[in-house]
Write a structure and sequence with these properties.
Layout (H helix, E strand, L loop, with lengths): L5 E3 L3 E10 L5 E9 L5 E8 L16 H6 L3 E6 L16 H13 L4 E10 L1 H11 L5 E7 L11 E2 L2 E2 L1 H20 L3 H17 L8 H8 L14 H6 L12 E8 L3 H13 L4 E9 L6 E2 L2 E2 L18 H13 L11 E5 L4 E5 L8 E7 L5 E2 L8 E7 L26 H4 L5 E4 L7 E15 L3 E11 L5 E12 L5 E14 L4 E7 L18 E8 L5 E7 L7
Parallel strand pairs: 4-5, 4-6, 6-7, 7-10, 10-11, 11-14
Antiparallel strand pairs: 1-2, 2-3, 3-5, 8-9, 12-13, 14-15, 16-17, 16-26, 18-25, 19-24, 20-23, 20-25, 20-26, 21-22, 21-24
Helix pairs in contact: 2-3, 4-5, 4-6
C-alpha cells in the first residue's frame, strides 16, 4: 500500500494512508496529523473500526486531530484490521491486542515523534486501547478510554446471561456495510442494492427485525459482533475481556463514562481495578448516554452544567475535551506541567451538580435495604405480614418494551431517562413504591436487588428497575438489570445487578421498583424460542423469604457538591 498524498490546514500537515506493516504482513493504514514545525512531538494514537476519516467529527472522541496538531501533538488515526483503508480480514475484536501493541511502537518510530505514545477514543476504540496496553508495549504512556467495557459478558455480548440484542444487531448491520463494499465493490449496482437492503433492515428493526436476529444477519451476510454467534464463550471474549487483567496495563488511565451509557459499569470497573493495582487512575461520569453529551438526555434536562463542554465539568481546566487533552499532554511531556485534576468527578443527578470525590464509590456510602411489600409498597422496614407472595401472568411472546435506559440501539429506541408510565401500566410489570420522601435521599454507588422468585416457565429473565417518581407522577428510570434463570419453577434467591448511579431522590419524590420478565428488544426475550404461551411469575415479599433492593446511601451532610 503506497503512502497517499498529503495536505494541510492552518499550519497542519496531513499524510493520508501511511502504511504500517504488522508482523504477519498485513498492512494497516493511518492518517498522520502534525504541526508544520517542531520535533519530539507527543504522539496520540486512535485505532478505529469506523473509518479514520470520520474522527473529524469530534463529538465523540473530544479530540479534533487538526486542532490537536495545532496544539503541538502528532496525531495518528488508524483503521483497524480489515476496515476501510487497512488490509486483512475483519474479525470483530479478534486482532486488536497484537495489532494495537505493534501500532503503538510503529507510531513511536514515526518521524518527529517523541517516542512516547498515548491512546484515546472510546467504545470499540477503547477496547483497542486496553487490548494493546495488556501487551505492555514499551512506548505506551497513557490511555484515555471513554465508555469502554471491562467484561464483554456484562454489557457487550450479554448481561446477566441475556443477549444484548439491542446493541448487537444494529452494530453488526452498520459495520457490515464496509464489509459488503470490500466483498462486492466490483459490482457497483449489486453493491448499492445490498447496502439499500441493509439500510431498509435498520429502519425496520423496531417493528420486526429484532424478533428474527439470526435470520437478518444471515440474509445480509454481515458479521456478528459476537453475541448471536455465541463466541462470547470463545476466544474473542477471552481477548476482549479485561476483567482481572487491567493491572497489566501499568500506565496512567483516564476513564470517562455516562450514567446512561451501555458500558457504564465496565468504565467504573476498569477504574477501580487500576486503583486497586496502585496505578494512577482518574474517573469522570456525566449524565450522558453513549452518544449524547449535552444537557438534555432522554426526557430530562440536567442543566447547562451537565454539558460535556461546560466549564463546570473538570475545574480548574473546565470542559472535558480541554481537560482530556491537558491530561494526555501531562503524561506525554518529558517535563510535564503540573496536573491539577480531581481523581473522581461525578455528576449528581436530581441535584444536577458536579461533585469531586476522593474515591468511588464515596467512602461514606452505606448499603441500605429497602423491602418490597405485598401491598406494592417499598419501605426501609420489612412487611409486618407473614409469608406473602405477589404474582403476575406474562407471555414471553409479548415482551415488555424497552423504554430508555443504558442502551445503544436504533433511533426508535433512544437511550436515557424516560417516563415509564406506559411500561408500568402493563399487567406483567409489578411496581413497588415508597412513601413521599420528607428529605433528600442520596444514592451513590452500585445498586442490587435480592429477589426471591419463581416462574412456571423453564427459563425466565428477571428484570428489576429503579425509578424516581416525581410529584407530577412521572416515573423516570434511574438504573436497571437483568438475570436469566434456568429451572425457575421453585422459589430461589437471586441477586440482580442494577449497576451504579449517583442520584438524589429529592424531598417530595418517591422511589419505585419494577419487577418484570423482559425488556425487549434491548435484551433478547425468551419468547423468541418459547412457544409455551402464558406463564406465571411469583415474587416472595414477606415472612422469611423477603425480596429487597440494596441502595448505597450517603448520609445527609448539607455540603455543596
Amino acid at each position: 500500500m503506497a503512502e497517499g498524498p498529503g495536505g494541510g490546514t492552518a499550519g497542519v500537515t496531513v499524510r493520508f494512508d501511511v502504511p504500517a506493516t504488522m508482523a504477519d504482513g498485513v498492512v494497516l493504514a493511518s492518517d498522520v496529523y502534525a504541526p508544520a514545525a517542531g520535533d519530539d512531538l507527543p504522539t496520540l494514537l486512535l485505532r478505529t473500526p469506523y473509518g479514520k476519516q470520520t474522527v473529524l467529527e469530534t463529538a465523540w472522541t473530544g479530540i479534533d486531530p487538526v486542532a490537536a496538531a495545532q496544539a503541538g501533538f502528532l496525531v495518528v488515526i488508524q483503521d483497524t484490521r480489515g476496515r476501510f483503508a487497512s488490509g486483512g480480514e475483519w474479525e470483530p475484536l479478534r486482532h486488536e491486542a497484537s495489532d494495537g501493541a505493534e501500532s503503538v511502537e510503529w507510531a513511536a518510530r514515526l518521524p518527529r515523534s517523541s517516542g512516547r505514545v498515548a491512546m484515546f477514543g472510546g467504545s470499540y476504540s477503547g477496547s483497542t486501547q486496553w487490548q494493546a496496553a495488556l501487551e505492555q508495549p514499551p512506548s505506551l504512556a497513557a490511555l484515555s478510554a471513554t465508555m469502554t467495557w471491562a467484561d464483554p459478558r456484562d454489557g457487550v455480548f450479554s448481561r446477566g446471561g441475556v443477549l444484548e440484542l439491542g446493541l448487537d444487531l444494529p452494530w453488526s448491520l452498520v459495520t457490515g456495510i464496509d464489509d459488503l463494499v470490500r466483498r462486492h465493490g466490483d459490482d457497483e449496482v449489486g453493491l448499492m442494492t445490498r447496502i439499500d437492503a441493509v439500510l431498509d433492515e435498520l429502519d425496520d428493526l423496531g417493528e420486526a427485525g429484532y424478533r428474527r436476529p439470526r435470520e437478518v444477519l444471515a440474509r445480509h451476510g454481515v458479521r456478528d459482533l459476537g453475541s448471536l454467534a455465541a463466541v462470547d464463550r470463545g476466544p474473542v471474549a477471552s481477548t476482549a475481556d479485561l476483567a482481572g487483567r487491567q493491572r497489566r496495563a501499568g500506565v496512567p488511565t483516564l476513564h470517562t463514562g455516562g450514567w446512561y451509557d451501555i458500558f457504564l459499569q465496565g468504565t467504573i470497573d476498569n477504574h477501580l481495578a487500576m486503583v486497586e493495582a496502585g496505578h494512577d487512575s482518574w474517573l469522570v461520569v456525566g449524565p450522558w448516554s453513549h452518544e449524547n453529551f449535552t444537557q438534555a438526555v432522554g426526557q430530562v434536562d440536567f442543566g447547562i452544567r451537565a454539558r460535556r463542554d461546560s466549564p463546570a465539568v473538570l475545574p480548574p481546566v473546565g470542559p472535558w475535551p480541554d481537560a482530556q487533552l491537558a491530561w494526555l499532554r501531562h503524561h506525554l511531556e518529558a517535563a510535564p506541567v503540573p496536573l491539577d485534576l480531581p481523581r473522581v468527578r461525578v455528576f449528581v443527578m436530581g441535584r444536577n451538580q458536579w461533585r469531586t470525590e476522593a474515591v468511588w464509590p464515596p467512602a461514606s456510602a452505606r448499603d441500605t435495604e429497602v423491602f418490597l411489600h405485598p401491598d406494592g409498597g417499598l419501605a426501609p422496614v420489612p412487611s409486618a405480614a407473614g409469608p406473602a407472595t405477589i404474582g403476575f401472568s406474562y407471555d414471553p411472546a409479548d415482551p415488555v418494551p424497552t423504554v430508555g435506559g443504558n442502551t445503544f440501539m436504533t433511533a426508535q429506541f433512544p437511550a436515557g431517562p424516560f417516563d415509564q408510565s406506559g411500561v408500568e401500566a402493563r399487567a406483567d410489570v409489578l411496581t413497588f413504591t415508597s412513601e413521599v420522601l420528607d428529605t433528600d435521599l442520596e444514592v451513590a454507588g452500585r445498586v442490587r436487588a435480592h429477589l426471591v422468585a419463581s416462574s412456571s416457565a423453564p427459563t425466565v429473565d428477571w428484570v428489576v428497575r429503579l425509578c424516581d417518581v416525581h410529584p407530577d407522577g412521572r416515573s423516570i428510570n434511574v438504573c436497571d438489570g437483568v438475570l436469566r434463570v434456568e429451572g425457575a419453577d421453585q422459589p430461589r434467591a437471586h441477586t440482580i445487578d442494577l449497576w451504579s448511579t449517583s442520584m438524589v431522590f429529592l424531598a417530595g419524590h418517591r422511589l419505585r421498583v419494577h419487577v418484570t420478565t423482559s425488556s425487549f428488544p434491548r435484551w433478547e426475550t425468551t419468547g423468541l424460542s418459547d412457544t409455551g404461551g402464558t406463564h406465571r411469575a411469583v415474587i416472595h415479599v414477606g415472612g422469611e423469604h423477603r425480596s429487597t433492593l440494596v441502595l448505597p446511601v450517603l448520609p445527609p451532610t448539607g455540603d455543596s457538591p
